[in-house]
Amino acid sequence: MQISNEEYQQFKPLLFSIGYRMLGSVVEAEDIVQETFLRTYQIDEQKLDNKKAYLCKIMTNRCLDVLKSAGYRREHYVGPWNPEPLLLEKSLYFDPSEVVLQKEGLSIAYLRMMEHLATDERAVLLLREVFDFSYLEIANIIEKKEENCRKIFSRAKQKISRIEGESLNYDKNKSIIDRFIQAFQMQNTDVLLELISENVTLYSDGGGKVKAAVRPIVSVSNVLPFLYGVIKKIPEDFYFEVKNVNSQPAIVIYMNSKVHSILSFYIHSNKINELYITLNPDKLPHSLSKYKIQGW
């Protein structure tokens, strides 16, 4: 099967979006996108009714294979595992030729919740809820019966809590984060306690490459001292910006003109419920993403 350059540009964002959401890794998603396109040359085009469906099938099933083999690696990962942050230009989102779907499939909080699902559950949930595939299409993609896919979707929905639209309001969340930064700089404990949930949890991902907490840190009384400790150890020439990361505002910290760490948030009911600090250098972006994410 031949893929024209126009078709390549059309399908690549969709395939990358599926791969990134499935795996939480930019590099792995990129590799499988290229592998998917290469495999098309081995297929007789006359036997295909729908190129898009075929590409999505190859991409999804290859991601399922990777997830199954990744279990061992995740079990031996040093400390909490955070999805690889995706640093984005907000202007990339507004392409009127694309269908705008639900945003929760891209946030760090949603991707972390996906870790609680079995591999098939993850695939069905994403394809149905984020990419709006029919159950029949999903059944053809993952090679299961349509009724089984309905049951898998129902089971997946019961396992993870839904991140409501209110929790994904970019401007509202940025306002809260701006207040958090100001209060943190001024060490205004009263305001910080107003902004942060009492049972807040912080997940610090260093991957054994840099120093980080090897267990989740729970409660505001433990999280705040940890954050103050991190800041004290960073040289004075560091600087930070609030950037669009996974369609949500996050704090990107720079040192020596490189990204040092990224602090992302899950905000619900105007309170910071979870924080995700990614320090693992293998997961930190070197520049703004070149991807146009579908399903945003």
From TrEMBL:
Gene3D superfamilies the UniProt entry points to: 1.10.1740.10, Winged helix-like DNA-binding domain superfamily/Winged helix DNA-binding domain
Domain RNA polymerase sigma factor 70 region 4 type: 109-160
Signal sequence bounds: none
NCBIfam families per record: PRK09636.1 (NF007214), sigma70-ECF (TIGR02937), SigX4 (TIGR02957)
Quaternary structure note: Interacts transiently with the RNA polymerase catalytic core formed by RpoA, RpoB, RpoC and RpoZ (2 alpha, 1 beta, 1 beta' and 1 omega subunit) to form the RNA polymerase holoenzyme that can initiate transcription.
PANTHER family: ECF RNA POLYMERASE SIGMA FACTOR SIGJ (PTHR30173:SF36), SIGMA 19 FACTOR (PTHR30173)
Protein name stated in the entry: RNA polymerase sigma-70 factor
Native species: Metabacillus herbersteinensis
